[in-house]
Every structure is written in C-alpha cells, then in structure tokens.
Amino acid sequence: MVCLTNTDIKLDRKIFDLAPILAPNLLFSLSRYEANGQVADLPWCTQDTWIALSQPVHESVLLQSAIPLGLPGCENRLSEIFFSAGFRVFNPCLDIKNVHVQSAKSVHKDEKRLFGAYLFIPACRIGDIGKREFSPVPVYLPRYAKQAFRIGYSG
Fold it and tell me: By residue range, what is the domain housing residue 40?
C-alpha cells in the first residue's frame, strides 16, 4: 500500500480498511474533511490523499505526474493521469475521514490553477467501490470554464 498525501493532512486510521481491497490498476483519491468535521466543499474535485498498490506503472504516468502538488487542480489532474492509463479511481471519503489541519489560512487563486484534463470523482463508501454510479467523470477544464466548479457535479 502506497500513500501520497499533502503535508497538512492527518490520516484517518480507517485508511487501512482499504488494504484488503487494493488491486492492480486501482487508485483511491480521497477528499478531505475540514477541522470542523465537515467534508470539504466540492468533494468530487478536492482530494489530498492518493492510495494505490505498489506496482509498476506506465512510463507516461511517471512523465505526466511531474506536476507540483498544492496547486489548485493538481489533485484532479493527477487522478486523471492514472484514469487515462487504465486505473479505476474511487473516492471512499464517506468512510475515511482524513482531516485538513492547516496552520494558516490560504486562498487558492485561479492564476495558479492547473487547467486541462480533470477527473471528477464522486464521494462514496468503501462498499460502493465498483458500482457504476460512483465511477469518475473525465472532463476537460479550459481556463474560461471556471464556472464548472461553482455549478457542481451531480454524479
């Protein structure tokens, strides 16, 4: 089990519940919870933790993944890269509640947003993994389509 997470995330021990269902070409991209106990706004496009089985990946994944973490949009871009390489991607954040513990308030500005191919990943439970209604939706987000984040995704 390999876990990549932002440095301001406190991992939930329930993350280990994913170990028995890890499989080749499966990526968990988990939305965070804020310190107040609420899931982050727009959980389908806000992930801070990625989990996969240790495995060889296609070289194109390695080349495309050389993007800086912490930029707005990097999480959906990273998940899309794995999805395009044949990975199934799920966001079981309704069972695993990783908490965002930030020492200083930061504002994500669109000037620093990573535009392009994104993967919107609906929130689900561990038991929902594999169900069609929780499959992610790949989209292309050009710079002029910022309203997609405000409109939301209904699944």
Answer: 2-151
Could you give the C-alpha distances from 95 to 1, 10, 74, 118, 139, in angstroms and in order?
Answer: 18, 15, 23, 24, 26
For residue 31, what are the CA distances in angstroms to 57, 63, 111, 130?
A: 23, 24, 23, 18
pLDDT single digits (tens) 122-154: 999 999 998 877 888 887 766 655 555 554 444
Distance CA 101, CA 54 (A): 27
Bridge partners for 67 per DSSP: none
3-state secondary structure of 127: helix
Q: Count how many domains the chain has.
A: 1
Side-chain half-sphere CA neighbours of 92 within 13 A: 23
Query: What is the distance between the alpha carbons of residues 49 and 51, in angstroms, rounded to a whole number?
Result: 7
Strands 99-100 and 88-90: unpaired
Whole-model pTM: value is 0.83
Please, which residues have CB within 8 angstroms of residue 2's CB and are 6 or more apart in sequence?
51, 52, 53, 54
Q: Which two tokens stand for residue 81?
A: 């890269």
**Residue 148 carries which DSSP code?**
H
